[in-house]
Amino acid sequence: EDRKEDLGQEVSKKRPRETPNYFVSIPITDDQILDRIEDVQELIFTKEPDLLRALLPVQTMHLTIIVAHLGTEEEVEKAVLALKQSKTKVEAILHGEDLNMTFHGIGQFNNQVIYVKMSEEDQKTLSRIAEAVEQCFNEMNLDISGSKDFKPHLTFLKLSKAPRLKRRGFRKICSDLYKEYEDSYFGTEVFSQIDLCAMRKKKQESGYYYCECSINVGCSGMEESKEQ
Q1: What gap in Å lies between CA 99 and CA 10, rounded to an integer?
Q2: Where does the record place the A-kinase anchor protein 7-like phosphoesterase domain (predicted)?
C-alpha cells in the first residue's frame, strides 16, 4: 500500500485506471513493537501537532510484500488461490523453523515516509519468501505491476496521508522529530501469517485491513491453525 503513490509513469500510460486495490502483507502484532511505535508517534506529535493526520494507526502495521490490481471477483478468487499455493513454497524456505523479524532503528524515504527498519539478516530470508509469493501471483497472471522491489519497512508516518499539509508547504519531515529513537531497538516479531488485504474495503473492528484470505506459516503459525 505504501507504494501506490509512486507507481512508475509507464504503468499509468498503458493502464491509466488500474491502480492497486489489494496488497499482500505480513501483519505486525508484537506489543513491544507497537508500543514503541506509539511512543515515537507521540513524540513526533508533541513536537509537531500538525502531523497527526500523517500518522498511521498501529492497528494497521504491516510489511507489504506486493500490491495488486484485482478488477473482478474472479481475480480476487485467483489471488486467494495464489496465496494458498504459496504456503508450500514459504514453508520450504523456513525449513520448519521460526523466522524472527527484528526491528531496529528508523529510516525514511525522501523525508516523506518514515518507517522502522528491519535487520539485514532477516531481510534476506523475507526477500526469498516475497519472491515465492510473487511467483505464485505471476503464475495466475494477476496484475502486480504496481509492486516495486521488495524492501521490508514498517511505515508509521506518511505525508501523502495528509494532502492538506503539502498544500500548506509541509514537504519534508525533519529527522529531529524522532532522533531520540533513530537507533532504538523496537522488538522482534515471529513471522507466522501472510494476508491478502483490500485497500478500499471497510477495515475490521480491530482496525486492521479487510482480509480476503490469511495463511499461517512457520511453527507459531502451525499452532495457531490447530487452535482455530
Answers
A1: 36
A2: 20-216
- Determine the pLDDT at residue 228: 40
Which of 128-142, 155-169, 185-199, 211-225 has the least mean pLDDT?
A: 211-225
DSSP SS3 for 65:
strand
CA distance 109 to 146: 18
Estimate the share of the chain in helix, then strand, then coil, as percent rounded to the nearest 5.
45, 25, 30
> In whole angstroms, what is the distance from residue 194 CA to residue 136 CA?
14
How far apart, in Å, do the first and last CA atoms of the chain sit?
Answer: 28
The count of other CB atoms within 10 Å of the CB of residue 35 is 12
Considering only residues 226 and 140, tell me which one the structure prediction assigns the higher pLDDT.
Answer: 140
Do residues 24 and 133 lie in contact, with contact meaning Cβ atoms separated by under 8 Å?
yes
- Beta-strand ranges (E) seen in the chain are 22-27, 62-68, 100-109, 113-118, 153-158, 185-190, 193-198, 210-216
Average pLDDT, the chain: 88
72-122 pLDDT per residue, tens: 999 999 999 999 999 999 999 999 889 999 999 999 999 999 999 999 888
Least Cα distance to 113 among 200, 46, 74, 171 occurs for 171
